[in-house]
Amino acid sequence: MTIMIALHVLAATIWVGGMFFAYVCLRPVAANLLEPPLRLPLWGHVFGRFFPFVWVAVITLPLTGYWMIFNVFGGMANSPIYIHAMNGLGSLMILIYLHVFFAPYKRLKQAVADKNWPAGGKSLAQIRILVGINTILGLIVILIASSGRFLAS
Fold first, then answer.
1. What's the number of domains the chain is made of?
2. Residue 65 vs residues 17, 129, 134: alpha-carbon distances, Å
3. HSE-up of residue 104 (Cα within 13 Å, Cβ side)
4. pLDDT in the model for residue 152
5. Contact 43, 108 (CB under 8 A)
6. For residues 114 and 127, what is the distance between their CA atoms, to the nearest angstrom?
């Protein structure tokens, strides 16, 4: 159980923390300092380094989460409401990430390769909105995870 919780928290920390840093710290600075021919390749490379970690997270989180649901709580029917909330929000986050990876990120990489800065900017704007949503959802999940069992009692 200890290993599963540790892996679960580590995966969530890397994913949500990375999104928070990118959205709150890196994005505003890059937008202010860099023109599209520099900013868009930067983001392409940043995502290229970050997304492999997110892939590990989106695999690790459900595996460890469901392991805990079935081995600690005895299944979904016995799980408290905060576990269901984390499961639902986490699933939504994964779906949003999959969309980002397979749609706007793919278009961003192609736009950068083609030096099509308007198309790249459009793709980056879509990613920004979706990462913003996922960051908020991730922070909510962290709040639920850290306080849910106390609120449910």
1. 1
2. 19, 27, 18
3. 19
4. 62
5. yes
6. 19
Would you mind telling me the total number of residues written for the chain in this entry?
153
Tokens of 129: 């909105």
CB neighbourhood size of 42 (10 A)? 14
pTM for the structure as a whole: 0.95
Which of 107, 132, 131, 103 has its CA nearest to residue 120?
Answer: 107
Mean pLDDT of the chain: 97
Four-CA torsion 107, 109, 114, 115, nearest 10 degrees: 110
One DSSP character per residue, 68-85 reads HHHHHSSSGGGS-HHHHH
Domain, as residue range, for 131: 2-151
pLDDT in tens, 24-76: 999 999 999 999 999 999 999 999 999 999 999 999 999 999 999 999 999 99
Q: What integer pLDDT is reported at residue 151 of this predicted model?
A: 80
